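Hi R.,

Here's the chain you asked about this morning:
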Amino acid sequence: MSKVNKDKILLEWCKTNPYLTNATLFNFLGENKGQSAIVPIAETVDIEYVDRTKQINYDFMWQASFDISSGTDDFNTDVLFDMRQWIDWIEEKNEAGELPDFGDDYTVLEIQNLSEIPNLAMTYDNSTVKYQFPARLVYLR
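And here is the predicted structure, written out as tokens:
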């Protein structure tokens, strides 16, 4: 079985999201507004079949930093709406079967959102906020 850089392939796939506002990084998210990051959480065997094929869950967090408003304007709800577009994009890609390709030795079955809403993970100096939501890539190896 050939080795494949699943992390890089997932990152490149995520970069095709048309709702991204800036650079998408791997395993790092700074305070730069508009950046996003893919942060792996776990890669676990869910099922092992008799033929030794394994169904594996690759869980990751998709994070992003944005400006935040302390006013009564719509800014914060608009930012959350943008993040919800990312969740919808994952669902659309999954339904269309447009999934990351790990090569011949792997079969990517699906990508799932593990949350219906991005959550507020952190604020920086009351001017920047980090939102995140978990997702899962399921594949056979």
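One quick note: The beta strands are 24-26, 36-48, 54-67, 107-113, 119-124, 128-140.

Cheers,
M.
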